[in-house]
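ARCHIVE CARD
Drawer: 12
Card no.: 0347
Subject: one protein chain, sequence and derived structure
Cross-reference: see card 0346
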Amino acid sequence: MAERGRYKTKQQDIILDCLKKQKLRFLTVEQFMDCLREDGVAVGQTTVYRVLERLVDDGKMMKLPTEDGAKARYCFADEDDLSKPGKLVCLGCGRFIPLECSKMKEFLEHIYEEHGFEPDQQHTILYGYCECCKNRDKERETE
């Protein structure tokens, strides 16, 4: 018997398919709603929010509060990408870049040894700008 509130619906499958198309991009609930509308799918915002939260709870998505405390953003990624010790998030386009870097372990050890703080590797996120967004900004400056 399915756990109470954990049954699968056609709407959940439709939402999941939409999320997979947006893989490795952080989007707000409203942006996901726009993606669904573009696909001709009419699903209530509450349903979308509920499915996103369930996927976060199940470890299939990441949820990030925005840097300014506004609306949370969600990202669908493979389990392998989500398990990487670090994550890069572009503040420009919302792209998620799994970080697998030999220097990451040294960095985390430095934080612990020098600052007495033990970062949670699964939740270590560095915010910045991807190369595309950085180049776009440089192009605008030269115009």
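Annotation on reverse: The chain has a mean pLDDT of 82. The first helix runs from residue 10 to 21.
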